[in-house]
Design brief:
Elements lengths: L8 E8 L2 H20 L3 E5 L4 H7 L7 H6 L3 E6 L7 H15 L4 E7 L17 E7 L9 E4 L7 E4 L5 H18 L3 E5 L7 H14 L6 E5 H10 L6 E4 L1 H14 L7 E5 L7 E5 L16 H13 L3 H16 L14 H13 L5
Parallel strand pairs: 1-2, 1-3, 3-12, 5-10, 8-9, 8-10
Antiparallel strand pairs: 4-5, 4-11, 6-7, 11-12
This protein binds 1,4-dihydronicotinamide adenine dinucleotide (NAI) and magnesium ion.
The site of magnesium ion has 2 residues, from α8.
Length: 362
């Protein structure tokens, strides 16, 4: 059921380092199984961009890496990072150039408490906690504008400028309102206009303007400090939470913790205009501590692959993948160690594939 394209969709696959390669292998097998069931094709280009490559060739990716990616419909990434390579090298040498160069201005993090996954919050129950953090992904607080002067002297100074543009705030707010409309839900905008007196009142004004263009969607704004507390005290209240780059970054990690395990959390870096390929990746890193031992939870990568299918216009296939994820999490024998189980990565993969192949049967 390829809704808007004939022919194979081209997927750039960057397994990366550590367990990135292990979980992406599972995601690919799941994608192949669900594509076969739904009658569409995925063609992969596997790229070895990673800290391994950095150590042997001096760069995380080739100089024309972004050009290579532009020739694809989507990017599936495992994780990058390795102890011998400083984390800022793997981040600024690969992830940030991709997010910025391909205008992936939305970072999307769905949060759900599943049956079978214990949230650290006593009252967070499966089926009740189900929300999405929408983080602005290319401007805001994480700008390259600023600098250091008088290095090493008593009057040394560091200046870091935040950049908020009308275009940037408008499009992230529009994305949040449209997403809430599609979920029949509401928007919460993260602000701090009482303390940050220039950029945050501007954020509030622009969000209010975009809200007026979506009169059917309820919304409110909450200060980031109070919002952080409410994520813990009443996570079931939220539906779509939109925040600037910094606020969204912090809230999305907090929310992933609420959901119970970093091993299941997915993310999407989206260019909603479909001008450039979007990138889908689990939230977790390369986990050097468990790499190579076969116990990594593949669910974060598999759920990320489901987000990719949705973005590519295959919502039924995405729903099949998520249903398979729900089943394996609800079954004690197919939970990995991070969820208190004993299943290996391979056993979870087999269970997911089995569930997908039987999805049509009653
Ligand atoms: P991490 O997410 O790799 O690991 C944190 C803890 O969670 C570890 O104990 C790990 O074993 C566990 N864990 C993570 N994913 C798991 C999974 N799928 N199944 C079972 N357990 C899992 O974060 P950490 O240790 O801070 O970073 C390790 C490396 O990964 C660093 O080099 C870091 O820079 C990089 N990293 C890369 C990211 C990316 O590629 N987007 C994101 C976060 C970290
Ligand atoms: Mg983060």
């Amino acid at each position: 059921m390829s809704e808007h394209h004939a022919g194979a969709r081209r997927i750039a696959v960057i397994p990366g380092d550590g367990i990135g390669t292990e979980v992406i292998d599972v995601a690919r097998r799941v994608l192949d199984a669900v594509a076969a069931r739904h009658g569409f094709e995925l063609a992969y280009t596997e790229l070895d961009w990673s800290c391994r490559r950095y150590l042997s060739e001096g760069a995380m990716m080739p100089a024309d890496g972004l050009d290579t990616l532009r020739g694809h419909d989507a990017i599936l990434l495992g994780a990058v990072g390795w102890p011998e390579v400083p984390d800022h090298v793997s981040l600024w040498g690969l992830l940030i150039p991709i997010r910025r160069g391909l205008r992936q201005y939305v970072n999307l993090r769905p949060i759900r408490v599943f049956d079978g996954v214990v949230s650290p919050l006593r009252d967070a129950r499966a089926g009740q906690v189900d929300f999405v953090v929408v983080r602005e992904n290319i401007e805001g607080e994480y700008s390259e504008v600023g600098g250091r002067v008088n290095r090493g002297f008593p009057d040394e100074q560091a200046i870091q400028e935040s950049i908020f543009t009308r275009a940037g705030v408008s499009r992230i707010a529009d994305y949040a309102f449209e997403l809430a409309a599609s979920r029949g839900g509401h928007v919460t905008s993260a602000t701090k206009s009482n303390g940050i007196v220039h950029t945050m009142p501007f954020w509030d004004e622009v969000v209010a303007e975009r809200a007026a263009a979506h009169p059917d969607v309820r919304w409110d704004a909450e200060h980031i400090d109070a919002l952080a507390a409410k994520f813990v005290l009443a996570p079931e209240r939220f539906d779509v939470v939109v925040g600037s780059n910094l606020f969204g970054d912090i809230l999305s990690d907090l929310a992933a913790a609420v959901a119970g395990s970093i091993g299941i959390a997915p993310s999407a870096n989206l260019d909603p205009t479909h001008t450039y390929p979007s990138m889908f990746e689990p939230v977790h890193g390369s986990a050097p501590d468990i790499a190579g031992t076969g116990v990594a939870n593949p669910v974060g990568a598999v759920w990320s692959a489901a987000l990719m299918l949705e973005h590519l216009g295959h919502p039924e296939a995405a729903a099949d993948v998520l249903a398979a994820v729900e089943t394996t999490l609800a079954t004690p024998a197919t939970r990995t160690r991070d969820l208190g189980g004993t299943a290996t990565t391979g056993e979870v993969a087999d269970a997911l594939l089995d569930r997908i192949r039987r999805a049509g049967e009653v």
